[in-house]
Amino acid sequence: MSENKEKALTRGLPMLALRGLTAFPGMLLTFDIERPMSMAALNFAMGADQNIFLVTQKDVVKDIPAAEDLFSVGTVCRIRQQLKQPNGTSARIMVEGVYRGRVREIVTDSPSFYAEVERVPDAAERVSEARREALIRSCVTLFEEYVRLSENAAPEIVLNILSNNDAGYVADFVANTARFKYQDKQLLLEETHPTRRLAMLCRMLNNELNVMTIEQELSNSTAEQMNKNQREYYLREELKIIQKELGDGEDAGDDAGEYKNRILALNLADKETEEKLLKEARNLAKQPFGSAEGAVIRSYLDTCLSLPWNTRTEETLDVAGARQPQSSSGGSRPGRRPARGGRSERSDRAVRVFYWAPSYSFIKCTYQNAASERWARFRTPVVGPP
Predict the structure, then answer these.
(1) pLDDT category of residue 318 using cuts at 50, 70 and 90
(2) What is the mean pLDDT of residues 200-215?
């Protein structure tokens, strides 16, 4: 009796390997086939009772999989439609899953796989109706949110499971529709307890919703930035046209070009300073006519360019000349104290400065050397932003 029952649950079927797809019982699946071994399995099934066993490859890269490259659990399907190409080397078929199956033995693998397939029914469960109903509701709610965020699923698709209380059907429908990895779908296919499949689906949907939410935020941020850039570009073009009509459109560009030429003409040894000045000149070109920021940048550049860059003067420490009395035309002004030895107070100060200049230079150099060694990492650029 047990042998007859086992034979009833086992049958020989042509087997077709799927790449990146998983078929579920009670669900429709449409896909294309091109490999010679897949076409041979299709022709074998169409010549018999149109039943075929679909199983997923472990590695989608392999073009000619071996028996060990296939999962052992798949779905027995019935071929509903087929559309062969005129050359006969490829076809598009639509199948409907019938029941889960497990490979017991692969009879042959040439020209296509042919296997003994054992039927795998859903396992009996000892779960309360309240828990089953709670899992179904949670799964349907998460699936509704998934459909709302998804761009490829129609909102009406949720109606197929809203009023269905079959935990196995709800789990298979959501697993077949959702965009999960084929490895995750294979885990759902191999799980024979419907409530466990629902619990696994809830976890997978939660994770997928988190990913989709992040994707949507990134997409919205990118679209917002693009819209902002396009709007600014459009407004700038309009502003250029208005300024050109008013005769003021070229002022900012001309000023920026003039400042750029003056900066390059300095031949500054410090390239960092030169780059900062050129950056301000470029910023000036972007400013609209009459803007306050443009006036600030012009004032800043005028001040920097008026400095004596690359200009050196020689110091004259002539103590004897400073001791000479001033001429009558350059006498001391009223209110000055009397001069000593024919010299004015101004001459006395000049003599004292010249006298102490060598000592001051020595002290200054010593201080600068000590300070440069201690504060070298706190260097401040000569030219900075305004």
Answers:
(1) low
(2) 91
- Non-local (6+) Cβ contacts of 147 within 8 A are 153, 154, 155, 157, 158
pTM of the model: 0.57
The per-residue DSSP string of 86-120 comes to TTSS-EEEEEEEEEEEEEEEEEE-SSSEEEEEEE-
Give how far Cα 101 sits from Cα of 25, 34, 105, 127, 129, Å: 10, 24, 12, 24, 28
Contact criterion met (CB below 8 Å) for 17 and 55: yes
Q: Which two tokens stand for residue 328?
A: 């009558």
Q: How many residues does the chain have?
A: 386
- Taking 70 as the threshold, does the pLDDT of residue 136 lie above it? yes
**How far apart, in whole angstroms, are the C-alpha atoms of residue 205 and residue 214?**
14
**CA distance readout (Å), 293 to 8, 261, 274, 287:** 87, 21, 21, 7
**Residues 6+ positions from 204 with CB-CB distance below 8 Å:** 178, 180, 184
What count of other Cβ atoms lies within 10 Å of the Cβ of residue 111?
13
- Cβ-based burial of 318 (10 A; exposed 0-12, middle 13-18, buried ≥19): exposed
Is residue 384 within 8 A of residue 276, CB to CB? The reply is yes
pLDDT in tens, 24-66: 999 999 999 989 889 999 988 988 889 999 999 998 888 888 8
pLDDT at 329: 44
Domains of the chain, CATH where assigned:
2-119 (2.30.130.40), 129-216 (1.20.58.1480), 251-305 (no CATH)
DSSP 343: B
Hey, how many other C-beta atoms are within 10 angstroms of the C-beta on 76? 22
Q: Helical H runs in 247-339?
A: 251-266, 271-286, 292-305, 319-323
For residue 36, the tally of other CB atoms under 10 A from its CB is: 12
Q: Report pLDDT digits (tens) over 234-271.
A: 887 787 777 677 765 455 556 788 888 888 888 887 88
Half-sphere exposure of 384 (CA within 13 A, CB side): 4
Residue with tokens 């010679």: 36
